[in-house]
Design goal:
The protein is mainly β. It contains 1 helix and 25 strands. A hairpin with an 8-residue loop joins strand 22 (244-248) and strand 23.
Length: 302
């Protein structure tokens, strides 16, 4: 079931399936900013990645010496969440661990996903709670991240010519070059570091930018990334305080969207072979503790 939030600027939809945003539409000109999950390219809109981000070395989590197979980005994006609360401008979904989940991930937890609509922004909030004391002396280990996909070029009903992806720019919240790493054929981190030679914070999207999958940007190099029109006006900005983020569009498909992904976690290095507690960017909660994470999507120029 889908739920709607609305104000004078935006019409926003979210689905109980994965607690995923499914639409961000301007009420001014009916522009749809969020990717509409065309299966020819990618069947999702904006999944939440939990309890891992990216791929695992050996395709498994090791928890207290036991192996727990798990696919890329975890399982939360494929779960039906409960609608926990709702107001005119806010909605919260919740997922609680159960016996089926604990066969794959042996922790007691509650994952709450909230969306707050204010003016021309949508704030995405994740709240993780350790509700038990089963594994690792009561500690809950996890990663979490976002994967929102945005139309690029825009789908503007008021225009018959929206251009192509390579007419658009990224704009980063820094004038410094953006350093990034790639993934290998197993989806694991490559050690070599590359660089986007930005100009005044802008980088023109190229046809081959994602030929080697996602660009992984570590080190808190910027706190915002915009998608800009061919004239360099920002049409949408993602604002975050995560230590890393990804940029992605499907390899070899010429897909008409790009993803800007704030992460608190990432894929393993190919050489990693340790316990979940040894993974880089491991997030930890003691029994009874909660922690919130958030990022904001701002629709510019409306």
């Amino acid at each position: 079931m889908r739920y709607t939030l609305e104000n004078e600027y935006l019409l926003v939809e979210a689905d109980e399936n994965g607690a995923e945003l499914t639409s961000i539409r301007s009420k001014k000109d009916f522009t749809e900013y969020l990717w509409q999950a065309d299966e020819r390219y990618w069947r999702r809109h904006a999944p939440v990645l939990f309890p891992i981000v990216g791929s695992l070395s050996g395709k498994k989590l090791v928890i207290n010496g036991a192996d727990y197979p798990m696919g890329q980005h975890g399982f939360a994006r494929d779960k039906i969440f409960k609608m926990a609360s709702r107001t005119d401008d806010t909605i919260w979904f919740a997922l609680d661990s159960d016996e089926e989940i604990k066969e794959r991930y042996p922790y007691d937890f509650r994952l709450e996903i909230g969306y707050i609509l204010k003016d021309n922004t949508v704030k995405n909030i994740w709240r993780v709670t350790n509700t038990g004391d089963f594994a690792n002396a009561g500690k809950l280990h996890y990663q979490i991240g976002g994967h929102p996909a945005f139309n690029c070029p825009l789908e503007r009903e008021a225009s018959s010519d929206n251009g192509k992806q390579s007419d658009y720019f990224f704009r980063f919240g820094t004038d410094a070059p953006i350093r990034y790493r790639l993934l290998n054929e197993k989806g694991l981190l490559v050690e070599t570091e590359y660089e986007l030679a930005t100009e005044g914070g802008y980088y023109k999207i190229t046809d081959d930018m994602f030929d080697k999958d996602a660009l992984i940007v570590e080190g808190s190099q910027t706190g915002e990334v915009s998608i800009c029109l061919p004239d360099k006006r920002a049409c949408l900005t993602v604002i975050f305080d995560s230590p890393l983020f990804g940029l992605w569009s499907p390899t070899g498909k010429n897909a008409p969207f790009v993803c800007i992904e704030p992460w608190f976690g990432r894929a393993d290095r190919d050489s990693f072979a340790g316990d979940i507690a040894d993974r880089e960017y491991d997030q930890v909660l003691e029994a009874g503790e909660s922690k919130e994470y958030s990022f904001t999507i701002r629709v510019d120029g409306i």
